[in-house]
């Protein structure tokens, strides 16, 4: 991710509907583990917005490979954070009950990262993943974020299975965004010149509220039935 975006992320991760919705969706999956004395690692913790929320369910650690991200975390008083990579976390084996990998897998070498996560998870530990969906939604925003790929449900499920994980739930999210996202990104792709505007930018307060409410209603459907289309994928898999 470009360095200038960390400031945007730090400012908006507690108010932008997309960040709030994703965080709440992951929390619902953490709740399904069924207890609160968990040890959780958030790989690619960014500026720390998820760490405080996840701490309600146990001891939470965060790692990120960007010093800017870790500095923001520490400025918020978060102590269990350190520089680290997704394939070399520096933790002992069988340390964590759950690992969250939220919009990270698309940045890294998949096989090495999943091997490391499997190593540090306890027996029957859970891996919770979010990734961007569908290559045809690729845009300049993916390039600004340094994405290497986007995923389909079947492709992600196959990757996890080959890495020794048992996929328990997988679904697309934000189905209501597919058409507008495609159109907006197509238009933005035609704009050249100055620094690309951030998709982290906060929409109007009204739209922010509408999208947050819509995503909350949608969550019931993807958790219950699964959705066949969306701009993101969410998955929980067991070691």
TrEMBL record:
Gene Ontology molecular function terms on file: S-adenosylmethionine-dependent methyltransferase activity
Keywords, sorted A to Z: Membrane, Transmembrane, Transmembrane helix
InterPro entries: Methyltransf_11, SAM-dependent_MTases_sf
Membrane-spanning intervals of the chain: 220-237
Methyltransferase type domain mapped to chain residues: 41-129
Protein name, UniProt field: Methyltransferase type 11 domain-containing protein
């Amino acid at each position: 991710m470009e360095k200038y975006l960390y400031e945007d992320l730090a400012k908006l991760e507690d108010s932008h509907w997309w960040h709030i919705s994703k965080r709440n969706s992951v929390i619902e999956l953490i709740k399904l583990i069924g207890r609160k004395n968990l040890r959780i690692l958030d790989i690619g913790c960014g500026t720390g917005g998820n760490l405080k929320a996840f701490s309600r369910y146990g001891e939470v650690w965060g790692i990120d490979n960007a010093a800017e991200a870790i500095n923001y975390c520490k400025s918020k008083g978060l102590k269990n954070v350190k520089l680290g990579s997704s394939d070399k976390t520096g933790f002992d084996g069988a340390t964590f009950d759950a690992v969250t990998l939220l919009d990270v897998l698309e940045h890294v070498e998949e096989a090495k990262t999943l091997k490391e996560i499997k190593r540090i998870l306890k027996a029957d530990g859970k891996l919770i993943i979010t990734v961007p969906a569908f290559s045809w939604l690729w845009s300049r925003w993916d390039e600004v974020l340094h994405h290497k790929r986007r995923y389909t449900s079947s492709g992600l499920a196959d990757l996890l299975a080959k890495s020794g994980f048992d996929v328990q739930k997988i679904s697309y999210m934000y189905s209501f965004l597919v058409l507008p996202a495609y159109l907006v990104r197509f238009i933005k792709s035609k704009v050249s010149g100055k620094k690309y505007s951030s998709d982290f930018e906060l929409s109007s307060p009204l739209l922010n509220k509408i999208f947050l409410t819509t995503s909350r209603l949608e969550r019931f459907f993807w958790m219950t039935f699964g959705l066949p289309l969306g701009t993101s994928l969410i998955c929980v898999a067991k070691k």
